[in-house]
TrEMBL record:
Belongs to the RMD5/GID2 family. This is GID complex catalytic subunit 2. The lineage of its organism: Eukaryota, Fungi, Dikarya, Basidiomycota, Agaricomycotina. Residues 340-383 form the RING-Gid-type domain. The keyword Cytoplasm applies. A zinc finger (RING-Gid-type) spans 340-383.
């Protein structure tokens, strides 16, 4: 569980009957008390009515207590997650890292300023960029500023359901987007969203014919076009995110989370292609660093190691590498390594990984060892298949 899921667990309790304002307490006041009062006024025996009321109050109390217990549990969950993400003793941590002092060297201070300036510029927060330019000797390059302004404008347009600026950018950069080795599917996805937002079937098909046929055979253009013929304009096809045949669920109309998700997906795709086009890093480096340290749990781990083994490990700032593993999500693993399952050695340029025809991978040296004795083929150490020397493929990680 992370902070956001702990928070949503807490939020979901606010709408549950046992803890909400319309829950047991309300029922007690609105129903039971009013009921008892009118019964007494109507001449019923007060002793009977009061005894019943007492029973009801007791039951309601139990219900309320049950609800509160759940509520405190969820609240505790949020606290725990916050503690996990942000170690509470930041002061002690910063003391531990104070010698040698952080960012005291002019180069280090400048590098930090640069990272912050780049991050602000990339997000288009120009007021802050200008304030930083005033306070430091750095300046944000005007060409980058133009590009970042363009990126923010197009992302904003996508958010407000106007895909034309994004499509125009794609047209202007079509040769870049379509060139190998990574031809982009961004223009197709933009057109697909426009296609689905067109209400008239005939117009939608005309649009697809004019704009989307070029994406065959890599994209399911024909499936998309024909799907609208099978759908009456009034029915809503549930979307599954990947392939949405329901034109009535088209992007850009009032609606449920799907359009929002689709818009977010398009923004992400666009930003990726834009960054690739101008050779910007895919993500904001400062954001990645901060996220790995906080939510990724790295700082927490380092701090734990320092507390537990600090004296044995010496000054944390002098560590060449972390003495423990930090489990990072797959999207944050940048330097994949391959360890040969036979020799247990890490692959290198001179001893690269090789894939056999069965799909198993071993390091080249292990492969050559298995070839010994003038053999032309290698029997896979993991399955019965044989691979001839010339067919084994070098892999790049
Ligand atoms: Zn095999």
């Amino acid at each position: 569980m992370d902070i956001s899921s702990a928070l949503s667990a807490l939020e979901s309790l606010s709408s549950s009957t046992s803890t909400s304002s319309s829950g047991p307490l309300n029922a007690l006041i609105d129903t039971h008390f009013t009921n008892a009062k009118s019964r007494i006024l109507a001449g019923e025996d007060p002793r009977v009515v009061i005894t019943e009321l007492q029973k009801n109050v007791k039951n309601c109390k139990k219900e309320v207590e049950k609800g509160l217990k759940g509520w405190y549990g969820a609240l505790g969950g949020v606290g725990k997650e916050v503690d996990k993400a942000f170690p509470p003793n930041l002061g002690a941590i910063s003391d531990a890292y104070a010698d040698p002092p952080l960012f005291a060297e002019p180069e280090a201070a400048e590098a930090l300023d640069k990272a912050i300036l780049e991050s602000l510029g990339r997000r288009g927060i120009w007021e802050a960029v200008e304030a930083m330019e005033d306070e430091t000797s750095l300046s944000y390059s005007p060409s980058k500023r133009d590009l970042s302004t363009q990126l923010q404008y197009i992302l904003h347009s996508i958010r407000s359901s106007n895909l034309q600026p994004a499509l125009q950018w794609c047209t202007e950069n079509s040769s870049f987007l379509s060139s190998p080795p990574h031809p982009s599917s961004l223009p197709y996805h933009l057109h697909r969203t426009v296609f689905r937002s067109i209400k008239s079937q005939r117009e939608a098909i005309e649009y697809a014919k004019a704009n989307m046929m070029g994406y065959l055979p890599n994209q399911p253009v024909l499936k998309l076009i024909t799907s609208c013929l099978y759908q009456s304009p009034l029915t809503k096809i549930p979307t599954n995110g990947k392939f949405n045949g329901g034109r009535e669920n088209g992007f850009g109309k009032e609606g449920e989370g799907d359009e929002e998700g689709e818009s977010e997906e398009l923004q992400k795709m666009f930003q990726e292609e834009f960054c690739r086009r101008y050779q910007w890093s895919k993500e904001d480096p400062l954001e990645v660093t901060v996220e790995l340290g906080s939510r990724g749990g790295t700082l927490d781990r380092i701090e734990k190691a320092r507390r537990v083994m600090g004296e044995h490990l010496g000054n944390v700032r002098k560590w060449d590498e972390l003495p423990m593993e930090v489990p990072l999500p797959p999207s944050r693993r940048y330097h994949s390594v391959f360890v040969c399952p036979v020799s247990k050695e890490q692959a290198t340029d001179t001893n690269p990984p090789k894939m056999l025809t069965c799909g198993h991978v071993i390091a080249e040296e292990s492969f050559n060892r298995l070839l010994k004795g003038g053999r032309r083929t290698v029997k896979c150490p993991y399955c019965p298949q044989e691979t001839s020397q010339s067919v084994a493929q070098r892999l790049y990680f």
